[in-house]
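Notebook, p. 212. Picked up where the previous page left off. The plan for this session was modest: take the two constructs that came back from the sequencing core last week, fold each one, and keep the raw output in the notebook itself so nobody has to go hunting through shared drives later. Recording the first one now, exactly as returned: residue sequence, then the structure token string.
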Amino acid sequence: MEDNCSNRLQASSVRINLFLHPSHHKRYELAYKSGYFSLGPWGASLPEPIVLSDQSALSVGFTNDNRKGRGWTVETQAGLSDSLISADWGTRLLGLKVKIGASASSNGEITGFVDGERKITATVRGGVSVSAEWEGGIIMRLRLVPQILS
């Protein structure tokens, strides 16, 4: 019983985000994720597969956007088990917010996506997203998001 309690208390990692906004249209992000760790006996009995499922990583990103819905983001992440670089570009096209992006990781995974979203009614937004992995599959997601009126 004591080991399970210790594991539950330990089974979370620390994430620190630092956002800098030098202007209304530019945003910098620095994020650090500690991964699982143990302090003395606290968390020492955590099973190895769980410990290895969330390892330490540091990411740095830059976003440039404007009020018309156009912009881009570039991010790089360095971690103990995997590193990656990703980029996306967004614009408005025929009343839709469209975003196109891709990422590549050090473990050989290459992913691309296309995302579209628009207002359906005064209180509901809808969207569709399609992502594809080089050696994986294709995933399509549909979403409806209710808007809260204030």
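Okay, moving on. Second construct, recorded in the same format:
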Amino acid sequence: MRSIAISFFIAIAVFSAAQANEPQSFFKPGCTRFAIPDSVEHKSVMSVAYGSQRYEVKITQSGSLIREDTVRSGQESTALADMKTNLSYCYSRLPDGGYKELSIIGPSDSNSTYTIAKTDEIGERLGEKCAVWNVAYGTSGIVEKNCLTHDGIILWQKVLSGSGSILHSAEVTSIDRSSVRPEELRVPAEILHLSTWGNWSNGAEQAPNDEVLLESELNPKDSPRISLLIQRFGGYRKIERKEASYHIVSYRGEGVEISVTRALDGSLKRAIVRHNNQPLDAKGIPMRPEKHRFILEKFCNEFNMAAGVSDYYQTDCRTPSGVVLRTESHSWGTNRRLVAKHISEDKLTLMEVVPPVDILQTVH
């Protein structure tokens, strides 16, 4: 996938050079709204119309590096992307200036192929001419029209439905072709420090201290076996889920959650860090009439974990101390049942359950 991301930049370098009309396929970064592969150094402001909402996006770009700063419904957010590697970052802030959430999206999270082609249409905005390029969103029928100057600055954008109606649009309100400082296109160093996202070093030994490995029972024999490893150490949780096509590791501690999703080849799909004040262990509602089981010589009660949800059903069988020994779910024709195959108690250490201190710097 990394080679595809790099070839995407090479293939559509014509996007701003305006020399070829042949359609090209590419994957676009997950964070940025405006995917312009190469541009002269500049800063611009886009006025976006999205339904009844109106907001501004400030673009800062130098070559293949692009930054977008947005204030939408009072929420500040920033997106940065490297169009050569297809790696992108998006983060938002709290009202007090602290960080609210961070997403790091890798090349292998591009699930859809986009096709881009230059048209003969010429546009204009703020007295500057631009060539119109159409970006097709797979087989959805949606088309994104981007009007770019000869040096790669976007002047307007329209996203059209299959019937031709405008879903949302944007147009430039100011352009400044001044130089861009390198630090303006870098991710803030502190946002990649684990300490920015809470205290992960409270190692006082306390209950619970347990580990359980669950494996799937409903998979066909020739399918990769789905597994779930749940580790609990005091106020920290680590959960590893292995699916047929991806692998997720998530960490919880002191109001913060970190999750990292990778493809089977180890390449990053996405990493997410956010504040989460929900209980560490979901409570659920006891099943009525009461249901219980014995698994690995341990007693557990059945709980409804998705009460009030119409299109999803999940039950967990939990021991009195909260260890999940069996979980079963049904959603849109997909049935899952995982049952405990191994359990251990009082053997974990803090370092086995909390994330590595450099996890956000080395995740990609």
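Notes on construct two before I forget. The chain is about 5% helix and 50% strand.
Flagging for discussion at group meeting.
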